[in-house]
Predict the structure.
Amino acid sequence: MRIVSGIQPTGNLHLGNYLGAIRTWVSMQDDATATGGECLYFLADLHAISMPHVPAELAANTREMVAALVACGIDPERSILFNQAQVPQHAELQWLLNGTARMGWLNRMTQWKDKAGKNREGASVALFTYPVLQAADVLLYQATHVPVGEDQKQHLELGRDIAQKFNNDFASPEAPVFTLPQPFIPPEAARIMSLRDGTAKMSKSDPSDMSRINMTDSADAIMQKIKKAKTDPEPLPSEAAGLEGRPEAKNLVSIYAVMANVTVAAVLSEFGGEGFGKFKPALGELLVEKLAPINRRFTELRQDRAALDAILSKGAEKARALAIPTLEKTYAALGLMRG
Ligand code: TRP
């Protein structure tokens, strides 16, 4: 099993990021290392330049994200943790795959359509070819499993199409150049919503800080935010069906369930019939208890720039060694001379 996944280095990490990608990464790392598999996790800093960005913030966010990943349990001794920019093989393979990817395939990508909006002529070329770089990210390492959120499934399928077409066009069936990666979408990928509006995703760009739990929030701030979280006047239902049409209640109960590692049904069998006056303090305390150790490590690590840079440079060295054989095979399959 070879697990490969990436995350864009956005700043202001919050509970949604943790309960989304990061927790899955940690549990896959723990499973993989128990069974002799291997995990490569990277900061997709090359992807970040597909949208307008501030260079100084990109470097700071990259370090910040490494600190968060390590604080949440990614162990740089067991997983290969790096940023794309230190492994030039990603960009090289992307160029080689640009010959195989089709304009029509990329034109159908919903993320491209959403992000470019009505202004396609003004969008960057990088935004358009973004999925080809993403394909290179995983094909470079012969990934077998790629944990991603539902929104990235289409990109992963495109990566499989590119691998398949390349193998068809340039390799023999007995000796394919690329492994076809499987998307792995966590079964109950928690969609964590805003604390102020149960129909909007928890987001770092929401102007209200009360809408999210940040990785840097103190215990007091967490308790306050949960206490002030929007709810409705009804008590909690005793079954999950009763949460339909109650987005805020549903969100708080889901957060509790994921944090306690139990089902929504189990949470409701404990709190069904209770009002938020009782549920909210319980949720706040659970969050404080689970997040406190992460918060402590994160606060400490994010100040240790030398340690973070060392993690990334060591990770990149290991990643390059794994990447080179596939990259060389790709050049050779295309008839490109390497001396
Ligand atoms: N595009 C992904 C996202 O925004 C991040 C990403 C880049 C990625 N390269 C990847 C995810 C390779 C999985 C595999 O979430």
The chain has a mean pLDDT of 95. Residues 115 and 163 are 25 Å apart (CA to CA). Strands lie at 2-7, 38-43, 80-83, 145-147, 182-184. The domain at 2-190+305-334 is CATH 3.40.50.620 (Rossmann fold).
